[in-house]
């Protein structure tokens, strides 16, 4: 199992924290207010906001 990058994420084993890639900041950030959605093509995704710049972040795939 690969090592987690953030020490605070290592302590949480149940998930709860959702990360996404912010295109504006060009780095992985922790999503603020993640919400599970279904895209037009029927695939699951999670949408949230970047805590740094406030833009929308999408993560495709089932949220765990």
Strand fraction equals 35-45%
According to DSSP, the number of beta strands is 5
Largest sheet: 3 strands, antiparallel
Order of helices and strands: HEEEEE
Termini Cα gap: 17 Å
Count helical runs: 1
Structural class, by secondary structure, is mainly beta
Portion in helices: under 10%
As laid out across the biggest beta sheet, the strand order is: 3-4-5
Low-confidence stretches: 6-14
- Based on Cα principal axes, name the global outline: globular
The chain-level mean pLDDT equals 80
Query: Cα-atom Rg, whole angstroms?
Result: 12 Å
Features:
64 residues, two-stranded antiparallel sheet, mainly beta, 6% helix, 5 strands
Q: Any overview of this molecule?
A:
A hairpin with a 4-residue loop joins strand 1 and strand 2 (about 25-30). This protein has one helix spanning about 5-10, and strands at about 20, 25-30, 30-40, 45-50, 55-60. With about 60 residues, the protein is mainly beta. Mean pLDDT is about 80; it is low at about 5-15. It has a domain at about 40-64. A three-stranded antiparallel sheet has the order 3-4-5, with no helix packed on it. Strands 1-2 form a two-stranded antiparallel ribbon.
């Amino acid at each position: 199992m690969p090592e987690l990058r953030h020490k605070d994420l290592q302590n949480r084993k149940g998930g709860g924290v959702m990360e996404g890639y912010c295109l504006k900041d060009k780095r992985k950030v922790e999503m603020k207010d993640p919400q599970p959605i279904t895209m037009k093509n029927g695939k699951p995704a999670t949408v949230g906001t970047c805590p740094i710049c406030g833009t929308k972040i999408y993560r495709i795939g089932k949220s765990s």
